[in-house]
Amino acid sequence: MLAEALSNLTQSSHPDLLVGFNKADDAGVFRISENQALVQTLDFFTPIVDDPFWFGKIAAANALSDVYAMGGRPVTALSIVCFPEGDMEPKILAQILAGAEETINESGAVLVGGHSVKDKELKYGLSITGLIDPKNLITNAGAKAGDVLYLTKPLGTGIVSTAIKRDACPEELIVRIMQQMATLNKDAAEEAVKIGAHAMTDVTGFGFLGHALEMAKASNVTLEIDASAIPIIPEALEFAKAGYLTGGAKDNQKHVGAALEIVGNTDENILHILFDPQTSGGLLVATPDNAPSDMAVIGRVTKASDESLKIT
Ligand code: CO
Ligand code: CO
Ligand code: CO
After folding, report:
1. Which ligand lies nearest the alpha carbon of 211?
2. In which band, very low, low, confident or very high, does the pLDDT at 292 lie, cut at 50, 70 and 90?
3. From the CA of 139, which ligand is nearest?
4. Are residues 164 and 285 in the same domain?
5. Which range of residues forms the domain containing residue 290?
6. Is residue 143 part of a domain?
7. Ligand nearest to the CA of 70
8. Could you tell me the distance, in angstroms and rounded to a whole number, from the CA of residue 142 to the centre of ligand 3?
9. Count of domains for the chain
10. How far apart are CA 309 and CA 259, in angstroms?
11. What is the rounded radius of gyration, in angstroms, for the C-alpha atoms of the chain?
12. 3 state SS of 55
């Protein structure tokens, strides 16, 4: 929605604006000196889990992720709070903030403040500022034919969150999914930077294929995805089969549309998970073919063809 509204604005051009909102990238990047640029991002949402402490942790990991996805190092964080004052106990907000602070501390960044407004519905998130040497900036535009693709977290958090809301989720899975979403992309990003990643993005609301399409378009290449190699939360597939489908996945599928060619027969439930909107998802990384990595290869980059995405 924001992208549509922004499309009516002309991106202000400035010699130091390295990545602006016209780039469909994870964060804005602004050079402040020859060797340093600010990486700035903002993300907030309604609770996706019932536990306020874990909601805070997940919101923080999710917001920090956009800095990691550019290869940056998060430095400061500001909270954005919409709180139903009077209808909700203040200690809930204290727990959210405590969770967020724990995860921010884990990242090495510092929570420096924030702002709250009264609202009917609880929402929480953060604006993160990071730093990067502009020479080391990794956008989604650098993937090259011959690169291999990695995905660093299993897909399916959207569909599992839907199952949680419908009380269909066993406690053990809720704990596992909260831990996954609260896991920082810090180590994954450091590994990607170390092996010379050409392009990187985190997988969030547009789903795996939505973010893959952004990378394919920005890099002017085609991404060939091996559906059987994609890491998936096993229960998410079970929920898909049982019909726990999300509206978000439908929107994402519509958005990708004809840019996707399905070669062979990919199970429709797997396809649904490839479109599933993720919260605090993993990184999609394109690296040189010979880069040493423990991560599982999920596809390859080829020269641009009629379709930007192929699933085999
Ligand atoms: Co992102
Ligand atoms: Co984001
Ligand atoms: Co990026």
Report:
1. 1
2. confident
3. 3
4. yes
5. 148-311
6. no
7. 3
8. 10
9. 2
10. 6
11. 19
12. helix
